[in-house]
């Protein structure tokens, strides 16, 4: 049974953008300090005084006034020399006011205009690019935000916080490959993930089809006090999907031992995962104990599962006993035939003869082949009379007549011929292979 990953890990991706957005606001307000020492063209003292006055007004809450006057001041300036640098700063100040007025789209547009002014120092324009990317995301302009993050990354190394934000933006767009690329860089730049980052990473890994990484991300949370059964089911399911059934079984077993996974359904899944994960003997032990103490009903399905577990573990005596129990429980031709064929494959001749006799009495499919197998088993037991009778029955069926005739020819007429000489190797091989 495959357990599909559930919804609990898909949280609001935009939520994680808020810390970066707050830092953007702080940067917008601080950038005007020290203008006289800036790398851009020298500003007149009156321009510096005016910019500082507007900044003080913004700090005192005069948002609308600052937005209006900053725009107006920028509008009347050229894009060259000191005027161009002043124009960029007025636009940046207007962006701060627009952000305070809860107009992130307008703030982003103003910064876009500011960073298009080439006389502005490169470092300032790069910083405005960073801020605009966050503002575009805040405004719901995720495609443009993603474009800006990629442009920024082509010009500079992004800090860890920005890498996480870029991953969030592409995740919101459903661009899972790009989000996964950002995530790889973000994780490399982050020593320890917080809860929000783990949730984002899990969402991206799931959608990008990296189930093993998603399962490992869930495992990071499994030691926490707030984990529940769904966390463990989720991790096991993802390991199954990623082709790691052994790891899935180990996770499920750990959840069971902690008492988080319980009940008959979880117990059966525990057994199936052990079988799929390469520990079928453990599956057989668990199932046998559960059937004995009544935690699981002694149904045909559970008996078959037990027989399959012991067969897979190659515990031959236990497997044959389990198949025998299933055949006696159902008394079906198919169950007796399965027991007989398994016994034949393992060279348990007496089991083969008895089981196939019952299968044939119940009109099993492919009777010619079963008579042939029964004949070979009787031959191996040294019972020439029973072998001959079985081969004679096999000879009446088209599917097995040729092989049966070879056996009869080899056996000859006497029931107690000299030590029952072996027939041709090809005839033995054909009969055993069906």
Automatic annotation (TrEMBL):
Composition bias type Basic and acidic residues, residue spans: 395-408
UniProt KW Protein transport keyword: no
Domain of life: Bacteria
Membrane-crossing segments per the record: none
Annotated InterPro entries: TPR-like_helical_dom_sf, TPR_rpt
Residues spanning the signal sequence: 1-38
Record region (Disordered): 392-434
Keywords annotated in UniProt: Signal
Protein name per Swiss-Prot or TrEMBL: Uncharacterized protein
């Amino acid at each position: 049974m495959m357990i599909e990953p559930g919804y609990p890990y898909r949280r609001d991706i935009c939520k994680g953008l808020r810390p970066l957005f707050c830092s953007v606001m702080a940067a917008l307000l601080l950038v005007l300090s020290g203008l006289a020492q800036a790398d851009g063209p020298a500003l007149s003292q009156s321009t510096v005084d005016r910019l500082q006055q507007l900044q003080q007004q913004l700090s005192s809450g005069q948002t609308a006034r600052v937005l209006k006057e900053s725009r107006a001041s920028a509008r009347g300036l050229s894009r060259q020399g000191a005027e161009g640098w002043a124009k960029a700063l007025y636009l940046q100040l207007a962006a701060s006011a627009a952000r305070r007025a809860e107009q992130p789209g307008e703030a982003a547009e103003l910064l876009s205009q500011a960073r298009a002014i080439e006389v502005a120092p490169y470092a300032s324009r790069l910083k405005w690019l960073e801020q605009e990317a966050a503002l575009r995301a805040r405004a719901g302009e995720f495609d443009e935000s993603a474009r800006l993050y990629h442009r920024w990354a082509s010009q500079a190394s992004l800090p860890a916080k920005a890498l996480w934000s870029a991953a969030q933006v592409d995740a919101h767009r459903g661009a899972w490959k790009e989000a996964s690329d950002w995530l790889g860089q973000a994780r490399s730049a982050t020593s320890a993930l917080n809860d929000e980052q783990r949730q984002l990473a899990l969402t991206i890994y799931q959608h990008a089809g990296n189930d093993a990484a998603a399962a490992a991300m869930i495992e990071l949370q499994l030691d926490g006090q707030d984990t529940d059964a769904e966390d463990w089911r989720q991790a096991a399911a993802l390991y199954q999907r990623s082709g790691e059934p052994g790891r899935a079984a180990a996770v499920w077993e750990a959840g069971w031992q902690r008492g988080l996974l319980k009940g008959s359904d979880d117990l059966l899944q525990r057994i199936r995962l052990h079988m799929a994960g390469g520990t079928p003997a453990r599956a057989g032990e668990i199932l046998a104990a559960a059937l004995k103490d009544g935690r699981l009903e002694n149904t045909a399905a559970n008996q078959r599962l037990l027989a399959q577990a012991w067969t897979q573990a190659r515990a031959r005596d236990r497997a044959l006993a389990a198949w025998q129990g299933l055949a006696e429980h159902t008394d079906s031709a198919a169950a007796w035939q399965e027991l007989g064929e398994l016994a034949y494959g393992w060279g348990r001749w007496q089991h083969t003869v008895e089981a196939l006799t019952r299968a044939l009495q119940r009109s099993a499919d492919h009777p010619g082949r079963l008579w042939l197998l029964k004949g070979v088993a009787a031959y191996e037991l040294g019972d020439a009379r029973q072998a001959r009778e079985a081969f004679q029955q096999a000879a009446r069926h088209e599917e097995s007549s040729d092989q049966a005739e070879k056996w009869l020819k080899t056996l000859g007429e006497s029931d107690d011929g000299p030590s029952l000489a072996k027939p041709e190797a090809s005839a033995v091989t054909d009969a055993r292979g069906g």
